[in-house]
Design a protein that fits this description.
This protein is an alpha+beta fold and about 150 residues long. It has four helices and seven strands. The strands form two sheets. The protein has a five-stranded antiparallel sheet. It has a two-stranded antiparallel sheet with strand order 6-7.
């Protein structure tokens, strides 16, 4: 690991918390959250994390001329089911930035109990002018990296 990368990783401290009420439409016939809904919750939480850093998604795409921050890898660990009416809190943190990609960890709590962990890898991308409709990775701006550093 390079010193620069290590310094960025060690100083990343921004964590955003999102309160959410589990809705009836989030649940499957067994009355628990249908697992793909967690991925939608986490996608929303990533957007709110960037907004908390000063980069609301729409403004970020305009300001930095990017298409977005698509997910290229995701997984979750499920510990405790959530049900209709439950109040949960999602804590989201960027755990590592690389040149054009980054990792986000989400922890969904029911009260004090960790119910679900989600892990994402996303890429900072712009349109690929030489391939109509295509995208290509782009370096994450220093301004963005700085907003997440402690």
């Amino acid at each position: 690991m390079t010193e620069d990368k290590q310094t960025i990783q060690e100083s990343i401290m921004l964590t955003n918390r999102v309160n959410r009420t589990i809705e009836w439409g989030d649940c499957d016939p067994a009355g628990i959250v249908f697992y793909p809904r967690y991925f939608a919750f986490f996608d929303d939480a990533t957007g709110q994390l960037f907004a908390a850093a000063g980069f609301p998604k729409y403004e970020m795409t305009q300001r930095f001329d990017i298409v977005g921050i698509p997910m290229v890898d995701t997984r979750s660990k499920f510990y405790i089911p959530s049900r209709y009416g439950d109040e949960v809190v999602i804590e989201s943190t960027v755990t590592e930035f690389r040149r054009s990609s980054f990792d986000v960890t989400h922890r969904l709590y029911k009260g004090e109990a960790l119910a679900v962990e989600g892990f994402e890898t996303r890429v900072w991308v712009r349109s690929a002018p030489e391939r109509p409709g295509g995208i290509q990775a782009q370096a994450i701006p220093e301004e963005v990296l700085g907003a997440f550093a402690g």
